[in-house]
Design goal:
- It is a multi-pass membrane protein.
- Belongs to the TRAP transporter large permease family.
- GO terms for molecular function: transmembrane transporter activity.
- Part of the tripartite ATP-independent periplasmic (TRAP) transport system.
- This is TRAP transporter large permease protein.
- With about 450 residues, this protein is an all-alpha fold.
- It has one domain (about 5-440).
- The chain contains 24 helices and no strands.
- The longest helix has about 35 residues, at about 280-310.
- The N and C termini lie far apart (about 45 Å).
Length: about 450
């Protein structure tokens, strides 16, 4: 068997192992180790490359970005900033059509700018938004679907852990990836708002348990929160967003420095709100360590896997096949996005990135595709998997957090279909209009 054929076989084995339930890090390490051993027929070389990768894979100063942004997101979650943001959005927007749905999207958009993790948004807003939407006559399944659908904004609006992981795997600027995510993230948020208003006009029975009563309640609603209280609730998160993203986009901070400043700002915010005692601080630090070590181990495994692919000559071979097939850059992107969408139905987001990016990024480079643009396409396609069965981790997070026997997971999946439609439209727009991702980069 040739090295190339063995490389394809090993990719198939990797996918099967992950589907069968093996942890992605161990699957990557095992497949890469066996691959290097078999391709070079040298066990000592496989061990030496593993040793070298374990050190060099995460030795760069840049990798401190990961624990710092994770820490910032966890501290913000502890501070109840998400609840306050939703309450202000609710007051300002509930007279709109589907006002509380729009408020959920708006709050998720702001919350995403300081957390970077969709699952955190899904858990927070399930507790905050769903009961309030039900109280105002929204169907429980629709409210849950709105939370699950809008939670994916956390993976695209910077700072995002998926953008950081992609930047590391593709060896592109993390700061550049954050900038590239701005317009597509806002396009998603705007599309979600438009689809919610459209559904309310076209299919009010899908949104409300009693559309007529809900409409009367909306028209009778007034602003019942003093301006001073609204400002007090919004100022902390706005200051944190301006501090982190403003310093990052202005070039004043590197991504790592922005993570450190953001974590410190979130710590001060948690102390000022008296929401952080010794027990909670210990829990936050422990969670930060667990999450960060897990991600860094995955990156080491992905780096080792990438070296195995290079030894097998797989990226160059696939690039040759793509070129000979006459696909061209756009054809390759469409084919690649379709594969990622299919993988999203059976694998989690990080696993897809770790498996696909080391293969696809060199091919994209060879075809002249901007890797920042390619990264945004990748993340949007991966995000759709957060909402599609049978995996749909955002849907299951909402369902488990809600813990309502009257709202089935199937109903929530159905309610997320409009959000998936919007994401597919945005994916196509970003694919055919690269400037949506690169306009602020060059």
């Amino acid at each position: 068997m040739t090295s190339l054929a063995l490389g394809f076989v090993l990719i198939g084995v990797l996918v099967i192992l992950v589907i069968l339930g093996m942890q992605i890090a161990y699957a990557l390490l095992g497949v890469a180790f066996v691959g290097i051993w078999l391709i070079r027929e040298n066990l000592d070389l496989a061990f030496r490359m593993l040793e070298l990768t374990a050190y060099s894979g995460i030795s760069d100063y840049l990798f401190a970005t990961i624990p710092l942004f994770v820490l910032m997101g966890l501290l913000v979650s502890v501070s109840n900033v998400g609840r306050d943001t939703f309450e202000v959005a609710e007051v300002l927007l509930k007279r709109m059509l589907c006002g509380l749905g729009v408020a959920t999207v708006a709050a998720n958009t702001i919350f995403a700018a300081v957390t970077g993790v969709s699952i955190a948004s899904a858990a927070v807003f399930t507790r905050v938004a769903v009961p309030e939407m039900e109280r105002h006559g929204y169907r429980a399944a629709f409210a849950s679907g709105t939370v699950a659908g809008s939670s994916v904004l956390g993976m695209l609006i910077p700072p995002s852990l998926l953008l950081i992981i992609y930047g590391v795997l593709a060896e592109v600027s993390i700061g550049g990836m954050f900038i590239a995510g701005i317009i597509p993230g806002l396009m998603l948020a705007g599309g979600f708002v438009a689809i919610l208003i459209g559904l309310t006009l076209v299919a009010p029975g899908f949104v409300f348990t009693d559309p007529e009563a809900a409409e009367m309640r909306r028209l009778e609603t007034g602003i019942d929160m003093p301006v001073g209280e609204m400002i007090a609730k919004l100022v902390p998160i706005v200051l944190l967003v301006v501090l982190v993203l403003g310093g990052l986009y202005s070039g004043f901070f590197t991504p790592t420095e922005a993570g450190g400043i953001g974590a410190f700002g979130a710590f001060i915010l948690a102390l000022a709100r008296r929401s952080l005692d010794r027990h909670k601080l210990w829990q936050v630090m422990k969670q930060t360590g667990v999450i960060s070590v897990s991600i860094l181990l995955l990156l080491v495994a992905a780096s080792f896997y990438s070296r195995m692919l290079s030894i097998a000559g797989l990226p160059n071979a696939i690039a040759g096949l793509v070129t000979d097939s006459g696909f061209g850059p756009t054809g390759f992107i469409v084919f690649y996005a379709a594969i990622v969408l299919l993988m999203g139905m059976i694998l989690d987001s990080t696993s897809i990135l770790l498996i696909m990016v080391p293969i696809a990024a060199p091919i994209a480079t060879g075809l002249g595709i901007d890797l920042s643009h390619f990264g945004i396409i990748t993340v949007i396609a991966v995000e759709i998997g957060l909402l599609t069965p049978p995996f749909g981790i955002s849907v299951f997070t909402v369902h488990n957090t809600l813990n309502d026997p009257n709202t089935s997971v199937e109903q929530i999946f159905l309610a997320t279909l409009p959000f998936i439609a919007v994401m597919l439209v945005v994916l196509m727009l970003v694919t055919w209009l690269p400037a949506t991702a690169t306009v602020f980069l060059y």
